[in-house]
Amino acid sequence: MKKRNLIMVITFLYTGLTLYFMFLGFNRLDGYEEYKSAGYEFLLVPSGVPLNFPRFTFSWLYDFGNIAAFIPFGILFPLLNQINYKKFIGWFIIVILGLETIQSLAYLGTFDVNDVISNSIGATIGYVVYKVGFTSNLTIKKLIASSITAIILLVGVIIVSEVLDKRVSPVQPLHVIKEVTGTKPLTNEVPTFTVAGHKIEPQFNLYSNNENTTKTYTYTIEDKEELLFFLNIGIPDQEDFKGEVTIITDGKVIFKKNEVNLKEESETIEMPLEIPLYYEAKEMTIMITGNILLWDVGFTELKHWWE
């Protein structure tokens, strides 16, 4: 009986400490007005993985805490009331969903499904640890086995997270994507030229229009995620200062420059230009007229480490 009372006290104190950090810790009261002005926020779609490889950042420590802080619940609650895993994790998720909802409605944070997932993983690790070493009399040997189990499971979470995680790829030349109309940029023996007095030596491609018509390059990009395009743009000093470039995705113009824009922005424009494309698109078209040139056109995307 004394043992059960001790576990109840520990559970009560630890639950109180956890609730403090969920609702008052990390200066949540200071952010009350900001959360209130932004309105209720419910993030229902997972936006990342639970835990990456260790990094000396607050973000990583926060992610680690979201798992590790809930491991004790997977041990303490089954010790108080023997319960199978399905029932335990079911009630745990219901309670966490409720707490996350209250946190958002009270303007002390946001409802974040990522937190629910991480907290549930922590509780699951705790339950496995309970099964390994706490279902009968606790010994030093069982305590060591439980600790090793927790470490192995945390490492497993990290490994799975790293496998599932996607990161921004290095900049890749745009021409590595198949051009569907057969129009290709110049990639071999790319000539040098001068723009605004600066000698330009393209490294991997050159998009141009060698005729008096519009030249079009079309790429299929539906299998790409969170594309960010990079391009350099200009008109060679020795050419007539005229031309226009337009970039279209799925019929929507997302970028347009002509000789007037280039003249107005000649002193402020930074190269390479960045064009974000964070929504899903199936096709992208580059249309070039006149003497405007695009060079070293590339992109980054989210990719798994093995891709």
Automatic annotation (TrEMBL):
<keyword id="KW-0472">Membrane</keyword>
<feature type="domain" description="VanZ-like">
    <location>
        <begin position="13"/>
        <end position="132"/>
    </location>
</feature>
<dbReference type="Pfam" id="PF04892">
    <property type="entry name" value="VanZ"/>
</dbReference>
<feature type="transmembrane region" description="Helical">
    <location>
        <begin position="60"/>
        <end position="81"/>
    </location>
</feature>
<feature type="transmembrane region" description="Helical">
    <location>
        <begin position="88"/>
        <end position="108"/>
    </location>
</feature>
<feature type="transmembrane region" description="Helical">
    <location>
        <begin position="7"/>
        <end position="26"/>
    </location>
</feature>
<feature type="transmembrane region" description="Helical">
    <location>
        <begin position="143"/>
        <end position="164"/>
    </location>
</feature>
<keyword id="KW-0812">Transmembrane</keyword>
<dbReference type="InterPro" id="IPR006976">
    <property type="entry name" value="VanZ-like"/>
</dbReference>
<keyword id="KW-1133">Transmembrane helix</keyword>
<protein>
    <submittedName>
        <fullName>VanZ family protein</fullName>
    </submittedName>
</protein>
